[in-house]
Design brief:
4 strands, 107 residues, alpha+beta
Amino acid sequence: MTEKIAKILFDEDANIITIEGIGSNNLQIDYTGDIDFTNLVETLTVFIEENIFIKIENTDDLPKEGKISIVLETIIEIIKKYNESISTIESTGQVSLVNDDDDDLPF
């Protein structure tokens, strides 16, 4: 399994989060209005076929309050779920489409 190291940077004045190290270009996410994670998800989708694991650097230095912290937590959670999928693919050879977290939903 190949590993890429992602570094998350943020500019609170410009309301932009930059993710370095996982694409050919840095990924930028603007969090002034509606937040669009499409570029991040598309990049990770390409990496699935190559079994690339993403390690995030410097998460201790990230803000813990406000809108930016929610966006950062979401980015980190997306990458964690992606890594879990890569681990599942490696161990079983297939993607699991079952989400056990939703077992208690009323519908």
